[in-house]
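Entry:
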Amino acid sequence: MRCRIAAFAFALSIVATSACALDGDADPNFGDGGQVAITRPSDGGGNGTKPTGDLLQRDDGRYLWAAPLDDGSVWVGRSLHDGSPDAAFGGGGRVTLPACGDARNVRLADDGAGGAVVWAGSCLVRLDADGATVAGFGGGTEAPPKGFNATGFARDAQDRYVLAGNAGPLELRVHRFGADGIADESFGTHGGTVVVVPTTNGFADINALVVRADGRILVGGDRGNTHGPNLVVVQLNEDGTPDASWDGDGVVDLEPPPGHDRLIANALALDDDGSLVVSGMSSDGGVSCCLMLTRFDTSGQIVPSFGLRIFRLATQPSLFPFFEQRDGVVLLPNRRIVMGTISFPFGAPFTHRTQYTLVRTFADGGIDASFGHDGWNSYTIADPTGAGQTGDYVQMHAIAHDRTDDSVLMLGRTFFEDDSTGDDYVTFVRARFDLVFADAFDR
């Protein structure tokens, strides 16, 4: 059942109660009152920007998660559907991978055998289903250059591992590794290639990666323009060369719409028909106001019936990160689309800062007003210590769809601005979906 609540309650706290549940409320049976928070060891306090982690959802409801630590080491954990640690993994639900470089973004990929492959900031590590490190995986001399920061990682249909990220302002890189973790010499130059996009101010970024079943690779991000960044989506052939079937030269380069000064691709998802759903951000000037959503056909053209959608969330004028942020997008079995981001409410009460935020649309991009508060919902983190910490800054790192109950799990990092203990936390929230048309393709 869906009900309307007073306008002042637009920012949903996961510890709050309501007279009736909303589609998209936090699951009160998950963790401690709807959240899981794990104290994260940090050097010099938890405030500021940190590298991002990742989520990997299992078909049985369990999930793997990864979180980079300040000393370069990496936590990898496995949890049960209710958020409790899976004691069968690593002896207590978590393992710590030793540092193989500076603290950087970490990413996870399913290994197809019950385990996972981890991009641990600067190296590949394979873990078996019990969390033990698989000896002899990876190595070799060809790897991304020093300073590379991963933004996407996936296993393709040929059991190869594809890694994308940024090594500098214009060094956008894609690397591919064989099933053994060794650089794939058939891809690019010694397993890597530099993605070239036009730019007028010397800046460009890769923010997301997906891989087609035939081995072609898509990366999305932005490139500099005289008035603000353009959205770019690049498609590479299986050998790493630009795919001319994608908008003529392998590069979709999309300017912001009238009245907007930036357009950025932050997350990608491939649909069953081969079309590409892209979510991201736009700005109409002084405030980064809006979420962006569009769908490209297999040739790199915007699907006319979908168009370029720009969403503004009431009471949430800022949708750009204050610290680290990694947006997400997932496609649900009933063809709805869920975007994950953070938002910042510029209105009373001021007890919360940045918040996990989900937005749900139909397959054509139209907002699904049956979800949350007319299409969107936000989630805050309560002080897990009971010490009176307020002003939670919640940074989203990943979202994942759990098919066992059609929920969406959110992972990120949280620190508190006021009365802070100085700690920060790896935090999770699970949003419940009440899908009336669970088996219907209504749009």
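The longest strand covers residues 390-402.
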